[in-house]
Fold this sequence. Notes:
Layout: E1 6-9, E2 12-15, E3 27-30, H1 33-36, H2 41-50, E4 60-67, E5 74-81, E6 86-87, H3 89-92, E7 99-108, H4 109-112, H5 116-126, H6 141-150, H7 152-157, H8 163-167, H9 185-191, E8 204-213, H10 216-221, E9 229-236, H11 239-259, E10 272-273, H12 277-312, E11 322-328, E12 331-339, E13 342-351, E14 353-355, E15 374-377, E16 385-390, E17 400-402, H13 411-417, H14 420-429, E18 433-436, H15 439-444, H16 453-463, E19 466-479
Parallel strand pairs: 3-4, 18-19
Antiparallel strand pairs: 1-2, 2-3, 4-5, 5-13, 6-10, 7-9, 7-11, 8-9, 8-19, 12-13, 14-17, 15-16, 16-19
Helix pairs in contact: 5-12, 6-12, 9-11, 11-12
Amino acid sequence: MRDKLQKLSDYKWLIPKNVRPGMNVDAVIYANKEILDTLENTAIEQLTNVACLPGIIEPVIGMPDMHWGYGLPMGAVGAFDREKGVISAGCTGFDINCGVRMLRTNLSFDEIKEHLSKLIDTLFKNIPCGVGSEGRLNLNSRELDDVLTNGAEWAIKKGYGTNRDLECIEEYGSIKDGDSSKVFKEALNRGAPQLGTLGGGNHFLEVQAVDEIYEPEIAKVFGINFKGQITIMVHCGSRGLGHQVATDYLKLHEKAASKYKISLPDPQLVCAPANSPEGQDYFSAMKCAANYAFCNRQIIAHWIRESFEQTMGRNWEQFEMHSVYDVCHNICKLERHDVKGKLREVYVHRKGATSAFPAGHISVSPLYRSVGQPVLIAGSMGTASYVLVGTDTAEEAFASSCHGAGRAMSRNKALKEYRGEQIKKELQANGKYVRATSPKTLAEEAPDAYKDVDEVVDSVHCAGISKKIARVIPLAIAKG
């Protein structure tokens, strides 16, 4: 399939719909040459599979962090017509609303460097990490229902943060019209004890310092003011609840695809017609899982503030520890987009991709509407992460950008290649404090198991679908 790619620019590549039978639309990949050469052929083929689904809107999008995934590759975007298209649990992903929250402070590296070791120990203690980890909260059924309906608003009402936080969260921390009755019992049971937990795998919490500022005026709007400024980034999602919602509805969508006679190029692309009960039930349950994730990151943000207070001996408001933004990765949304010169409502599936709305767009918080939506791109463990901003050009990608570095090798291969103890030594030799639940996690998440985040970000920046604002580097890392 790689040999079918046609160069549109140094950062944009076309897979025409006539390269294989069944493709209804073209596919486009955003990548510079360095990244393009690393893309798996299987991931490219998965992208063309999605182009075969009914009601797909041109084009299917592959981001530079794209790699092989379940059905739709990670790092991809697929939009479907509201009436004739489909909704797919597989095209959204297992970790619904896996996302990133970023906080900023007025602290400098010089002010915090002597406290880093104690700080990461405190964060690791206060915020439960690891696969299956349970939190400091255990919700009853009424409370959990409230979380699924209201998301981060529930956390704010309980004292975990401020109303200003809500202005800095995608969808203001709550996707409306979620119906918790569409979330099944096993998912509820898994979610009740896990709120306020980081989880495992590629989820992380980092204390960072601003390394570069590319657009000072926009950076100031985001509260990023000087090199060496301390920021914090959290990457996590909807935990066992979201995973179970995906698992449950993949089974239901398998039956729906057969019931509605949907021809599937890959059995992992099970789906249901967008306007069918099976499609809308999943959409409603997915919203609930997304709200759980928003609430999860809000509670973690509150405990980060408390951890800084405990370590530094001052109130977090003195640090001006405010949210920069909170973005979704694995999500499906009904949005209005320009399709061939006409505004249409489409179901946009972003799997390992981030929304990137431009200045003036109604989806952007009023705090940032004058400059555009913050786009948070997480690097691999020990490498840089980025803050970008959405652009008008992103509309050609359904207002989307990449979400992270993207894996370059599987977890199994990483475990064979690396040893967690050695990874920890190397990171600490470079001045980075690391806490993890096990050496295995560090091996799976070794920096070289991921693509070069600088090249990934270069690809979307030079393609124009998001613009670099600042680069941050890790000082201390907590891994599940």
